[in-house]
Design goal:
Elements (H helix, E strand, L loop, with lengths): L4 H17 L3 H5 L1 E2 L3 H7 L1 H5 L5 H15 L5 E2 L6 H15 L15 H8 E5 L5 E5 L4 E6 L10 H5 L5 E7 L16 H14 L5 E6 L2 H12 L3 E7 L15 H15 L4 H4 L19 H9 L17 H15 L3 H6 L5 E6 L7 H9 L6 E5 L11 H14 L9 E3 L9
Helix pairs in contact: 1-6, 5-6, 9-10, 11-14
Length: about 425
Amino acid sequence: MTSSARFAASMAAAIDEIAARDGGYLSRFGLPWPDADHLLERYRAELADTGWSPSMLTAALASGRERASRDARVVEPDGRHALADWIGLSSVDAYCMEEGSLAAAPVDPASLRTRLSSGFDYVEAPGGHGAFVAKSGDTPLLLLNATGVPLAVWRQLIFDRSHPFKLVIPNRGQSSILDGGLDTFLDIEGEASGTLAAVTQAGIRDFHILAWCNGARLALEVGRRAGGLARSMALLSPMFKGTADVPAALSRYERDLQSLLDVVLANPDYAEQFIRHVPGMAAPVEWGKLPPDDGRHVEVLLGLPRDVDRMALLQPLLSPSSMANVARRVASDERQPTLQVLDRLTIPLFVLLGSHDNIISNRAVLNVLSRSTSQACVMRLHGAGHYLHDLQYGYLRHSLTHWTATLKAPPSTARLQHVRPPFPEDT
């Protein structure tokens, strides 16, 4: 049984994935612990990628249980339990991490504003487009956030001083990078042009691109225009809704949001009425009202963001002008020839998906990639939702560090697995 600090940090990061989503979940329901034989039977292929034997699995689960019991009430599930599977795979990964590369870095207590002012230089190009450029790091990484979402959702990457990346964060000009929202409308061509102008002004070359959610289409346009300046691209939970010539496979969130945006696009005056209902989308889950069904509980839980970010993630929809601009921007983005841009992409592409993403449709992403001639490296992280850059930051750092250094697929772990074409229908 191991008691190393590295193992303990990785297990604490795993348990924090639950506590950060809902601080009362573990005290209410406890943490179900898996049976080694059941885990090995169901995840034999995933565990084989790590070179594990049954005896080593038993040791990992024993160490994991001992460590987890310090932070949570461990319970015996009645039969197979999806959350038990997740913590079991997390224990395997924690046991494997000799260098502790999956343990999330602690967040600096200073404010994000202080971090930007002390750890970054601000560079502005002619025309007003600017970017925050980190003072440290050897590997330039252009970070493209989801449109209108406050930068705080990237706190883990920004405050982590142990990674090799020289972050370049565009001040996108449509809103406050810290407050979020979309105060003005700028189409994707204009934003890509401005972003590259700021990168060029800063003297940045040989950079990698990292984009999340609907920042993916902006990343593709930047990559198309960058020529030899960009080395690779990584897309996290990319939103490819509305791609022409690809069968629609929308998530419930995408369907509901699109219905609202269609109305606002046709008549922006409706935004005033709709914004009154948006804060309710950030309400905590009322677990007592859900059916006492393990599958439903776990699906909801693993799809949640960090609790303190629930309202921030809705910032693009919290004012009438911002909602109207979001409607215009989404419609504009979806007119882009996404498949053609992908086909002509000349830099390596890495795509990371969360198994429990309830915001975008993984099926839609794979539909787009399967119809493109681009040879993307695709991986899926078990137990992650849409916010894997935050709640599963250790896995992002593990993947991104390897990808940018080698331009090859990161090593698999028990939770992090390759999705190889032909892509399965149930992914």
